[in-house]
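User:
Can I borrow your eye for a moment on a structure tokenisation matter? Would you put together a sequence-and-structure record for a protein of your own picking? Please set it down just below, with no commentary around it:
AI:
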Amino acid sequence: MGNEEEPFKPVLKQDNEFQIFKDFLTRAAKLQELGAVGSKFLGGFQQGLEVHTCLLGLQGHLTQAKRIINELENLLVDLTVAIKTCNRSFSPVRNEDLYANLDQETTVNQEETPSSDYSLDYAALMGIIYSMLKQDYVMQERIVSSLNFKSLAGELESYCLMWSLRPFINDEIVMQAWRYVIH
């Protein structure tokens, strides 16, 4: 009986890895939605509308965002452990420069890539997305920590612009990750 169950283990592990990947992307999407809410609070602060309420809202945003960043990191670790238990090597990507060549390395093509190799693609994409979201969070944290009632109008305008532009997020990479879930 032990030999009959053996062929199913990699499939179960891959399903687990795919579920981790989907959970990661779902939390990443939630974090991006939180960013939009934070942007509204920042805009309210800039316009002087209920400034104290907006500042409290931004601080609440950071608390929720930090919790999700930690969850994303834990999911990345979970996937890394799952991959290592399958005797594949992987170390999480944490370098912004690595997603410069992502289009060539992780193009979704199910005909060319065996399904057992997808977990490495999941892990690479998760590492890259985690790095982008973490940088975005750090930027938001710095903006909120620098806000005060004496902030200059130009300074506030710059903060709002940076927040809305999301300079650390590459939407193409995020969309590419979602294509793995959709297909």
